[in-house]
Amino acid sequence: MGRWPDLVQIKEVGPRDGLQNEKKIISTADKVNWINMLSESGVKEIEYSSFVHPKWVPALSDAHEVGRKIKRKPGVKYSALVPNQKGLELALEAGIDGASVFMSASESHNKKNINKSIDETFPVLKEVIEEAKKAGKHVTGYVSTVFDCPYEGRIDPDEVIRVCDRLLEFGVDDLSLGDTIGTAVPSQVGQLLEPILKRYPKEKVIMHFHDTRGMAIANIMTSMDYGITRFDSSVGGLGGCPYAPGAAGNVATNDVLYLLHGLGVKTGIDEKKFQEAALYIQNKLGKVLPSKSLAYTTAQL
Amino acid sequence: MGRWPDLVQIKEVGPRDGLQNEKKIISTADKVNWINMLSESGVKEIEYSSFVHPKWVPALSDAHEVGRKIKRKPGVKYSALVPNQKGLELALEAGIDGASVFMSASESHNKKNINKSIDETFPVLKEVIEEAKKAGKHVTGYVSTVFDCPYEGRIDPDEVIRVCDRLLEFGVDDLSLGDTIGTAVPSQVGQLLEPILKRYPKEKVIMHFHDTRGMAIANIMTSMDYGITRFDSSVGGLGGCPYAPGAAGNVATNDVLYLLHGLGVKTGIDEKKFQEAALYIQNKLGKVLPSKSLAYTTAQL
Q1: Contact A214 B217 (CB under 8 A)
Q2: Does any domain span residue B159?
Q3: What is the per-residue pLDDT for A3?
Q4: Average pLDDT value for residue range A135-147
Q5: Looking at residues B203-215, what average pLDDT do you find?
Q6: What angle do CA B136, B142, B145 make, to 5 degrees?
């Protein structure tokens, strides 16, 4: 026991990965209030929106305005998702500390998601990564479906490594490995992290779990066993699963905080203030979010 | 990796621990159908009801009739909760393979729950345990609030051991250690299991987690790290939390099966048939149960 780290870095992806899968559109003013509440709670990194074309993600069509209006708290890194050169330009105008690029480890999922083969995607991301680095920005490479693909099933760790190698070669600062459909169990996490951590320093590896089958907290424990100290998570488990309306999405930051603080791991986040930010967006969305610890708090109010 | 056992024994407690906390009363005929579906799915042990006075648990006032009407599948152990001598007599009449007695490791919780001090509870349980053993029945001792108490906070493992020692001395065959309010994180599981497993063989120890804050699956992983191979769980996470209406209760058997089968651990349970039994009771209760893997399945229907 006692294998967990002293400190864990959490990137809050609720305003982006969370809201992009929600049907209800949140007003720009509410998003700005909410993101400010998140930074006030002590969150050190927030993915505040996506500069993907509004046609694809209408819920985030105000990315530019949100970026302009949020109060930039010193010490907090504000990042955004950028799909291509055009998206990066808009993001730079709106103000970002970091840019996140994305692609899949699975050929079929990549094709369905960004309408290009993996090999066709590489040159697009290479250009974005190089431009973002030239502009002095931190760049994270999201790799999705690293465990299972809804079309292809189990993904070989070698397929994941093939994509990671190229993204690092293009200049990304770190990699966020996504269990996009929330199917992984701890043994799969180990089977992927073993070869990954032989190849890359652990500081470059972020784990991004979805809680679709309730396995995310156990997968985070296992990742920490392997030395991982960086995780993406979403306020209240916001986000749902695009493949099954009503099912859970990103692992809830609230549950992650309950786990980590209970283990004595520091995050720098004030749980009570964070809870308030979660209740704020839950109220705006008008539905109970999937986080069990948030549900417990809500039920007691 | 690969620390988990080949085989795990699951006791399905939904018909008892689950239903006793649900507001909606399920008809006897529906309970019987449901319990028969559970045994058909391959569950080897089912706690089918409680012989606590109906005044305290009106949802289970038909315990006797349920016990008489369920189809006894060979190889399946049917047990029931018995609070005292009177309850045991009724349970024996209705037919049980095993009797479960219960008390708390926390003085205040024991007092609130069974209106007696811990020392006053011992002679009552001693009599029941001895009578049940004389009748040739398996006896399990539930010890609740082994990690935290809603009134006293953190419970010292020595307090848990004090109660376990007496129950074993009275003749219980095994102990089920309950995270009654679902607050424990994996470090607490380790801190309790270390002294417990120095004192008792692991075969005698069953872990009984509630998923109130979403930690149960991680706690089960940690318990398996310590060698535990027996768990209580409830169909769909049925049961809720008596301290916070709307919050999650027992860990969902569906999620436990997803974890274990994903790890390659055998349970003897057919996941698909089990899912059908979960959908059956979810439909009868008319509400979505807390299990995330069940929610995913339900959302796809």
Answers
A1: yes
A2: yes
A3: 76
A4: 97
A5: 96
A6: 170
Q: Using one digit for the tens of pLDDT, what is the confidence trace for B151-190?
A: 999 999 999 999 999 999 999 999 999 999 999 999 999 9
Q: Give the domain range for residue A166.
A: 9-300
Indicate whether A240 pLDDT > 80: no
Q: Which ipTM did the prediction report?
A: 0.95
Closest to B102 (Cα-Cα) out of B50, B63, B143: B143
Is residue A145 within 8 Å of A155, Cβ to Cβ? yes
Mutation target for A interface from B293, B294, B298: give the one with most A CBs within 10 A.
B293
Best residue in B6, B213, B289 to probe A by mutation, most A CBs within 10 Å? B213
Nearest chain B residue to A189 by CA: give it. Answer: B1
Q: Does B36 fall in a domain?
A: yes
SS (H, E, C) chain A: CCCCCCECEEEECHHHHHHHHCCCCCCHHHHHHHHHHHHHCCCCEEEEEECCCCCCCHHHCCHHHHHHHCCCCCCCEEEEECCCHHHHHHHHHHCCCEEEEEEECCHHHHHHHHCCCHHHHHHHHHHHHHHHHHCCCEEEEEEECCCEECCCEECCHHHHHHHHHHHHHHCCCEEEEEECCCCCCHHHHHHHHHHHHHHCCHHHEEEEEECCCCCHHHHHHHHHHCCCCEEEEEHHHCCCECCECCCCCECEHHHHHHHHHHHCCECCCCHHHHHHHHHHHHHHHCCCCCCHHHHHHHHHC
Question: How far is the alpha carbon of A101 from chain B, nearest alpha carbon, in Å?
Answer: 28
The C-alpha of A252 sits at a distance from chain B's nearest C-alpha, in angstroms, of 10
**Number of folded domains in chain B?**
1
pLDDT at A1: 42
Q: Where are the beta strands (DSSP E) in chain B?
A: 9-12, 45-50, 77-81, 98-104, 138-144, 148-149, 153-154, 174-179, 205-209, 230-233
Q: Has residue A176 got a pLDDT over 90?
A: yes
Burial (0-12, 13-18, 19+ Cβ within 10 Å), A136: exposed
CA–CA distances in Å: residue B27 to residues A182, B35, B168, B206: 36, 12, 36, 30
Q: What is the pLDDT of residues A36-89, one digit of tens each?
A: 999 999 999 999 999 999 888 899 999 999 999 999 999 999 999 999 999 999
Confidence of residue A301 (pLDDT cuts 50, 70, 90): confident
| A149 counts as catalytic | no
Determine, yes or no, domain membership for A1.
no
Q: Both ends of chain B: CA-CA distance in Å?
A: 35
**CATH number for A145:** 3.20.20.70
Asked if the structure places residue B137 within a domain, the reply is: yes
Catalytic residue among B76, B215, B241, B251: B241
Dump pLDDT digits (tens) for B77-96: 999 999 999 999 999 999 99
